[in-house]
Design a protein that fits this description.
single chain, globular, Membrane_comp_ABC_pdt, about 950 residues, 31 helices, 3 domains, alpha+beta, ten-stranded mixed beta sheet, 23 strands
Length: about 950
């Protein structure tokens, strides 16, 4: 028997039913189209923004055929990979001698005959801005040449063509406060240029640089440096050549090998896009076969996301088909249709609405991507160039929408085929007992999924983590009908409307469970990423070592003695930076001849050392014998305590700051303790006022004293210090009484001890004013930083400014990610709750009519809708939070495994891998979103009801 006529009728009935029930059909189409729209937009944006080989070559070469460059090896034979990413001398070849390396390489001789080329050189420079001075780089390149199209594009003004003209990227112009026509001066040689145009690099919209014609910056700068010894010569890069071969020729692999023989490296468009076989690449044998190894992990992650997207579509659309399936059951069944025909009509409805939703979603995806393209490009930091469309991927996405529409209708079709026609016509469905097998399977899947995910985490296999997480989430889905049924029992002692809402959810599990599952799926993914992101941020914050005390700035002398001119530099800082509070001046201390001054004699400097005692409390237990065993035996908290202890602090933190050399002793007073060290202790201030040094690292103290060892060696050219301290070279060891600060101050960046000036002079040490500390009220803006650099330059450029690095951008990025995840999950939660509430209203008209008939007030309709929405949203969020912890914890176990491996190599390496709950995100999703969903549902529901005759 041919089943086609039956299916043809089923599709005709499904199409007519979809047209008749326009509201429900539009709802189903929207539910299918929205995820398809998102996947389509994501695919288009990803493929368009992804740096393909062709785009990378355009970013490097523009419209040129190849880039030729010399190496520091000299004119010796080279080998390279086809993409130019790796190169070296042939295996077994002798290393070039220094004389060979100094020989120039005739790069132009390696060009294909008849080629045209452009030269490119870059030099770092400081230039004037509207606010002051900014550090940037200037590239000498004829950017007006058509050979640069695609790599550098003019956005405003004109290309520079004369030697006194220059162009800048839009990013630089914005931060510098400049406009086209302004004059820009390169500091040092004092070369002035007119800003003629704004340009952008399509592959790097955040680029911050200037462009000038060849020969207009570097050569005049060098001439100025040759005439004036006070001008430093330009530190320009070696030149590169952008080559355009004769028409139809290109730069072949044969040309690349010929250039390698002359000591020239080549990046050829033709070779990179169509690389030769490994048998023709001499260097291939040395590289092995691991050139690209990241595709598997990316593919696994993509498949996981696609699977969850399909699941979410099915879960969101399923309830709508369930409502329509009961009506179709009554229509077809009353006309004598069989249960199989009812199932066929429901499945045909899924195919019809799924196909429409897929087409609408794909079309809207194209439209939204084109509409928001500028925003996407700004976020990605690069231009698309052209919208990259892969037809098979788009077709697959559309087919995915169609298939998921059918899958969404599958379960309602099966259930509808089992229901009584009389119950469908009268609306009397009663309370049905849920499947006893499904929850058991769900629990088994949940336990197995958690076990697989944990196993993958402990063994570092992300594929197992992804698979186990999906399996665990599917297990929770299997348990949702039982959980929803249990909700009905919770309403026994609640008021009327929440009791009805809970019982309605329990009685109509086929409608409620998928909506709860959809919310759970969205929340689970968001919570997983948010938990991992928060945990990773906490780990980075723990491992982060600041370069200075947060919220501070230090002005340090660049010259010694009277040449420092610190008063003018201090005025420049105080007038241009957001300084709050007073200034704390500091000095540096040394023994013998000043080691910061260059002497030709190697042993012409003295030394100053703060001797660290040995033994328990002074030696770091994470160094030396038994350190590895100890590190692996103790907990992460104990390891953290040891790492931050005074004994281990200097082992972990080796940065030298403020001109103190290794001893980290700063000359200063109580103001240094208050402003930079943040030691607000009257006893410490009193001690330093009385001439007692304040020791910040207690591991250097023994019995309240420290040992200071000074070697007084004087260079014959150091006449000043030699006159002050005549006599033979000597070594002195002094025991100094100190005030020992609490252990937490051992982590003060760059300072180990603060010593009064008179104490240093009493010990025969040399002291010199070296700078000042400032407390900043906020982070300085670009304009303020440029202004202070200009003021320091006007003050003689005798000092430099150091500011604290507080990882503000990283924290901002983390907060932004968490906010985006919360918004995404919140929108899905609101949508799913709204959908199920709308279906509940359509499905429960008879119950609402009965309530009105027995005297229920009009507001019951509003409150019932609100509580129905609240039940779905809150249940889904709670389950989603629990499900989302599985992949997050498993991935943190993977990180822990890697951290323990690093610790085995170095016990000082931290294995601290915390699991930090994103409570703000969870609170937003668990409290704000459900309450908002309930209020919106109640507010948008009409309290008026037209009474109709109740069937039966």
């Amino acid at each position: 028997m041919n089943p086609l006529p039956g299916w043809r009728a089923a599709f005709r009935i499904a199409r007519r039913d979809a047209v008749r029930a326009k509201g429900r059909s539009a709802l189903v189409v929207a539910m299918i189209a929205l995820p398809v729209l998102g996947v389509t937009s994501a695919d288009l944006a990803y493929r368009s923004a992804m740096p393909t080989k062709a785009k990378e070559l355009t970013a490097r070469l523009g419209a040129a055929d190849a880039r030729f460059s010399a190496t520091s090896m000299g004119p010796v034979k080279l080998q390279q990979m086809p993409d130019g990413g790796a190169w070296g001398t042939p295996e077994g070849a002798p290393e070039p001698t220094p004389k060979e390396q100094e020989k120039p390489v005739d790069v132009t001789a390696a060009f294909p005959e008849g080629s045209r080329y452009l030269t490119e050189r870059t030099v770092p420079a400081s230039v004037t801005t509207r606010h002051g001075i900014a550090d940037t780089q200037i590239t000498e390149l004829s950017i007006a040449d058509p050979l640069l199209r695609g790599r550098i594009e003019l956005t405003d003004g004109a290309y520079p063509r004369a030697r006194d003209e220059i162009a800048a990227t839009e990013e630089f112009i914005a931060s510098a406060g400049l406009s086209i026509g302004d004059r820009v001066t390169v500091r040092g040689p004092d070369l002035a240029y007119t800003l003629t145009g704004a340009v952008e690099l399509p592959a790097d919209l955040k680029a911050d640089s200037l462009y000038a014609v060849p020969g207009s910056v570097i050569a005049p700068w060098q001439k100025t440096a040759d005439r004036d010894k006070n001008v430093l010569p330009p530190q320009a890069s070696a030149p590169d050549w952008l080559v355009q071969a004769p028409p139809g020729a290109g730069v072949t692999w044969k040309d690349v090998l010929a250039a390698n023989d002359k000591g020239v490296l080549v990046v050829s468009r033709e070779v990179v896009l169509d690389p030769p076989p490994d048998s023709e690449v001499p260097m291939a044998a040395m590289m092995g076969g691991s050139y690209n190894d990241t595709e598997k992990a990316l593919t696994a992650a993509t498949l996981t996301v696609a699977a969850m997207a399909v699941l979410e579509i099915v879960l969101l659309a399923g309830p709508a088909f369930a409502v329509g399936a009961r009506r179709q059951l009554g229509l077809v069944g009353s006309c004598g249709g069989s249960r199989g025909q009812v199932r066929a009509v429901v499945l045909a409805g899924g195919a019809v609405l799924g196909g429409v939703g897929a087409v609408v979603g794909v079309g809207a995806g194209f439209g939204l991507t084109a509409l928001f393209r500028p925003l996407i490009e700004e976020y990605a930091g690069s231009r698309f160039g052209e919208l990259t469309v892969r037809p098979w991927e788009i077709l697959g996405i559309a087919l995915l929408g169609l298939v998921t529409g059918v899958l969404a209708a599958l379960a309602p079709a099966i259930v509808a085929g089992r229901q009584s026609v009389l119950e469908s016509l009268t609306g009397r469905r009663g309370t049905r007992r849920g499947s006893r097998v499904l929850p058991v399977v769900g629990v088994i899947a949940l336990v197995a999924g958690v076990a697989v995910a944990v196993y993958g985490g402990m063994n570092g296999d992300t594929n197992f983590v992804a698979g186990g997480s999906v399996l665990a989430e599917l297990g929770v889905l299997g348990c949702i009908p039982v959980i929803v049924g249990f909700l009905g029992r919770l309403g026994r002692r609640l008021p009327l409307t929440p009791r009805i809402a809970l019982r309605d959810a329990a009685r109509n599990r086929g409608r409620t469970a998928p909506a709860v599952a959809a919310v759970m799926a969205a929340v689970a993914g968001s919570i997983a990423i948010a938990t991992y992101t928060s945990s990773n941020a906490a780990e980075q914050a723990y491992d982060y070592t600041p370069n200075m005390t947060p919220g501070t700035a230090a002005l340090m002398a660049a010259d010694t003695g009277d040449h420092a001119e610190l008063p003018r530099s201090r005025a420049a800082v105080e007038q241009n930076l957001p300084v709050s509070g007073g200034r704390a001046d500091i000095g540096r201390v040394w023994a013998g001849s000043d080691c910061t001054v260059y002497y030709e004699e190697e042993n012409g400097c003295g030394t100053l050392e703060l001797v660290k005692p040995t033994g328990k409390g002074h030696s770091c237990p994470l160094k030396g014998k038994g350190a590895k065993e100890l590190a692996l035996r103790i907990s992460a908290d104990e390891h953290k305590r040891l790492m931050n202890s005074p004994a281990c602090m200097d082992e972990n933190y080796t940065m030298v700051a403020f001109g103190t050399d290794e001893h980290k002793i700063v000359i200063g007073g109580a103001d240094v303790l208050a402003s930079y060290v943040k030691l607000a202790d009257p006893a410490a201030a009193k001690a330093i006022a009385e001439g007692t040094p304040v020791l910040l690292n207690s591991a250097y103290a023994q019995g309240g004293e420290v040992t200071l060892k000074a070697t007084h060696v004087y260079n014959p050219r150091d006449k000043k210090n030699r006159a002050l301290h005549p006599g033979k070279a000597r070594t002195t060891t002094d025991r100094l009484k100190v005030y020992v600060a609490p252990d937490r101050f051992a982590a003060t960046p760059g300072i180990r001890m603060v010593m009064p000036e008179r104490t240093a002079e009493r010990l025969g040490l040399h002291v010199e004013e070296n700078g000042s500390f400032y407390t900043l009220g906020r982070e300085a803006t670009d304009a303020e930083n440029q202004a202070v650099q200009a003021a320091l330059d006007q003050a003689g450029n005798r000092a430099y400014l150091m500011t604290s690095d507080e990882m503000l951008r990283e924290n901002d990025d983390t907060d932004t990610i968490l906010l985006i995840l919360a918004i995404f999950a919140g929108v899905v939660t609101l949508g799913a709750a709204a959908i199920t509430t709308g279906l509940s209203k359509a499905d429960a008209e008879a119950d609402l009519t009965t309530l009105s008939a027995v005297g229920a007030p009009p507001g019951v309709r509003r409150s019932l809708s609100g509580f129905q929405c609240l039940v779905v949203a809150l249940t889904g969020v709670v389950l989603g939070t629990a499900a989302g912890l599985v992949p997050a914890v498993a991935l943190r176990l993977t990180d822990l495994r890697a951290a323990l491996a690093d610790m085995r190599e170095d016990p000082m390496e931290s294995a601290y891998t915390p699991i930090v709950m994103p409570w703000e995100t969870i609170g937003l999703l668990a409290v704000v979103v459900p309450v908002l969903a309930g209020l919106l549902a109640a507010g948008l529901t009409s309290s008026r009801l037209t009474l109709t005759r109740r069937a039966g």
